[in-house]
Amino acid sequence: MLEIKNATKVFNPGTVNEKIAINDVSLTLNNGDFVTVIGSNGAGKSTLLNAVAGVFRLDGGSILIDGNDITGIPEYKRAKFIGRVFQDPMTGTAADMQIEENLALAARRGKKRTLRWAITKKERERYKEALASLGLGLEDRLTAKVGLLSGGQRQSVALLMATINSPQLLLLDEHTAALDPKTAAKVLEITEKIVTEERLTTLMVTHNMRDAIAHGNRLIMMNAGKIIFEVSGDEKKKLTVEALLAKFAEASGSVFSNDRALLG
To answer: Which residues constitute the domain of residue 141?
Structure first.
C-alpha cells in the first residue's frame, strides 16, 4: 500500500545548518500493516511522515501509494486518500465548530459540494454510531463545540475524522504525546480498535518504546535519517525496552538519547 523508495530530504543545503533529515530511506508497507516508528531525537521520524503527507518535496527518491506515484502531488490532494492525526489535540479539528460539523467536513473531504441541508438525518445517525464506538459518551454531545472537549476527547474525535472514510493510509504523528498517561492509553486503545476493525494501513510515530512494542505488527527504529533496525511478528511481541535499547546501541554504535522515550 505504501512504498518509499530511496527517499532523501536535506534542510538548509550548502549552509552551516545543513541537516540530512532523511537519508536514502526505503520502506514498504503491505495492505493492513500497522508499523510503529521509534527513534532518538532528530532521527527523522516526523520528517518521514511529513514527506509521505506531502508537507514538502523530497530532494530525492519517490513515494507510491497503492502503486501510484504521488511524489509530485501536493499535500491538499493527498488528503483525499491519507488520514492524519497530529501531536497537538488542537490541530486537525475546528475548535469553534460542533462535533457533528467537524465530522461532516472530514466525511466530505475530496467530494463535490452541493446545495443541500448541511447535515442529513442519515449522516447524523452515522456520526452518532461512530462516536458511540469510542465509549466516551460523545454520541450525546453532537452539537457541543470541539474546543470545549478535553484533550483526550478531542484527539479521539480527530482520530475518527482521519479514519471516517477509511483512508488508504493512516499517519499518526506522536498523537498521544501531549496527553497524560491514562488518557494516552485510552486513545491508543481506540486507535488499535479502529485500525484493526477497518484494516487500515498505518504508520505511527511514537516517543514511547513500550507503546511501539505493544502496538502494531511491525516496528522500525530510525537514527540519523536512516532505518537501522526492523522487527515484526513473534520476534516483535517478545521484545522488551531493554532489548530494544541494546538493538539500538548495536546498530547505531551510540546510546539512545530521547528522555521522553526512556521515561515513558
So the answer is: 89-166
Q: pLDDT tens digits, residue range 65-110?
A: 999 999 999 998 998 899 999 988 888 899 999 999 999 988 887 6
Is residue 177 located within the same domain as residue 251?
yes
Give residue-wise pLDDT tens across range 71-80: 999 998 998 8
Instruction: Report the C-alpha gap between 27 and 23 in whole angstroms.
Output: 12
Residue located via cell numbers 457533528: 100
Residues 9 and 61 in one domain: yes
What is the Cα–Cα distance from 155 to 143, expressed in whole angstroms? 17
Instruction: Residue 62: give its domain's CATH number.
Output: 3.40.50.300
Query: How far, in Å, CA of 236 to CA of 238, rounded?
Result: 5
Q: Mark whether 73 and 174 lie in a shared domain.
A: yes
Residue carrying C-alpha cell 512494542: 213
pTM comes to 0.90
